[in-house]
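Step 1: inspect the first sequence and its tokens.
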Amino acid sequence: MAQQKIKRLYLIPILSKALDILELLEGERRPITLEAIYQRSHISKTSVYRILKTFVHRGYVAQSPDGSYRLVSRPKKMRFGFAGQSAEMPFSEAVTSSLRAAAAASGVELMVRDNRYDADTAVKNAKEFVTEGVDLVIEFQIEEHVAPYLAHIISRAGIPLIAIDIPHPHASYFGVDNFQVGFEAGELLAQHAISKWKKKVDWVLGLDVAEAGSLVQSRITGAFEGLRSLLPEIAEELLIRLDGRGMRETSARVVSEFLRRHARSDRILIAAATDTSALGALQATVDAQREKTIAIVGQDCIPEVLEEMKKPQSPIVGSISHEAHTYGPRLIQLGVTILRGHTVPPYNYVQHRVVTASMMQESE
């Protein structure tokens, strides 16, 4: 009896209760409410609440938006699932590289999958993340129509979601302010027309990404508004949207078709939703031998476009850098904050930067 009393003197009751709760959560594959933990553990509700909040603060437990709790560390690294847009898209690969480096530096385990610019593949990857039991999903995919289904798959499993560039239900948005980056691209095009063409413009093309939905399309809306803020005399009927799908070949094809139909037009401004589209527009421009009468501004500042802008007289006169190297650290920080149960803004914007051809040429 004396020996049993001595052993109990060395026990810490609240620590024992905390371990009971941790073991209970470890046996659950789905989030569980405070009330359910209280009923099953027979620990006072006040103690359960304080223990859970401590676990959340220390990163062992995540609290879902509905208030339920799930174990995220046993203890082990937090495990994030990241589905990249496409390994063939330079900006997507830059984001993936930044995220890999940030995860390694932060001790977060990162499970990477490629959405291949395809809705069915994105759905497959989302289901795999659920099966693997990741603690948080970062989704980067282009198809707006599949976003609700992807979000449903992930939300039903009680897994928090961060969506890059394309809003998803139940997700925290991360990316650029699409309208603003478009507006600044439009201002660049207007400045070119003012300085080089004495404000004379025959057509303005917006190379859109229709399947990405209205938010990404607002890059082109913003470009048109930015252009007309400096050139208000440009008529609405001169502003034409073409669906380049954010891809080089498609963009080259639709711009080539437009140029063939308007062979006598001298001055054309092109705002591209992505630099990959901008390169497609460049290809069509070169093929038509119209480099002197077309000006192009892209988005993302991928290496190939930066190199192109170093060339004197290149039709690509600028691009808006989305600062892909900053995505990784900020996404990891945002994910950890969410898993620790803290409130985050619904929209988390990255900083962007205007890069012009003259800036690139001066840096040589």
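Step 2: inspect the second sequence and its tokens, then contrast the two.
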Amino acid sequence: MKNAMRVNSHPGLVRKVCKMLSSRTSHELTALLSDELRTPLNSIREALILVCASELGSLSERNRNLLSHALKNTEDLVCLLEALESEFDSSASRNPLTSDRLRLETDLRLAWEQQQLQLFYQPITCLETHRTIGFEALARWQHPTQGWIPPTIFIPFAEQIRLIEQLGLWVLRQACRQLHLWQKQFPSHPPLTMSVNLSSLQLMRPDLAVQVERACQEAQIAPSSLRLEITESSTIENPEMAIACLQQLKDIGIQLYLDDFGTGYSSLSRLQDLPIDVLKIDRSFVSQQKWEVIWSILLLAESLGLEVIAEGVETAEELEKLKLLGCKQVQGFFFSPPVDSHTATVLIADAICC
């Protein structure tokens, strides 16, 4: 009550500061309020109290007044921090969505620290040879109480709490190591490939090409066996920087895929500027049977000298229609959902035996 009265002497101050800090995550706010602000303030307050107790008599009247004001202001700031913490706590309790969001952020950090995330792999099939030519590596999170959390949920969270770059690098390294094992166990010509998704934040790293090349060297795979997938939207914020980064990746032998093509900021001029090799047709076009759109994308890709992979193939009818349209590479639950490395190894072995 005392703290509330003192803070209320500045109407709206708490809410203004809360709004200013609203972009921070719960973890960052806790650290900010408890460590970065409160700890030094408490230390300053205790130091001022000691000074007042031992040296007040030897100070001039002006300095005594300054010291008194300093001590009062410090105490007011500590009270403000307590009020802010109370405001954030009550706001979260009033809004169950905010509470769930904060809890999920905390759980994701814990999952990362305890290595609960794992990689699954979905095969990519060539319709001309009827063989698996590669895999797409996909991060998966099995929550201890909520079960499998969709990547459409936890990947945006990872971006917001700045975990996506660490997660992306981990996926890259793990996928390259797994590809090396498969290429060694199942030699083929051409060798199996691995596709890894890049986030927009990764694409803005000036050292991305160095990271990728190092990952290939450490895993002992050729860069030409690695495919990196980007979305159209990831190149929008800084197209010049994105194109330069993609060109560096091309220069070391990486193939580049444009994922979810047709759903983002599709532009022919932008498409011509991007140094990509393959268009991946978004699964929504297949599931909604938009064959005219798919046919147009196939014609566009052919005119630009690009290959095409159709995602989201789930039925024999969809597969046959894509064959008639001339699509040569597909991916989807009709062949296999994303599976763990052991199951994927069995899939490769079974395909060779057949």
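Step 3: confirm your contrast with the notes below.
The CA atoms of residues 70 and 245 lie 52 Å apart. The chain has 15 helices and nine strands.
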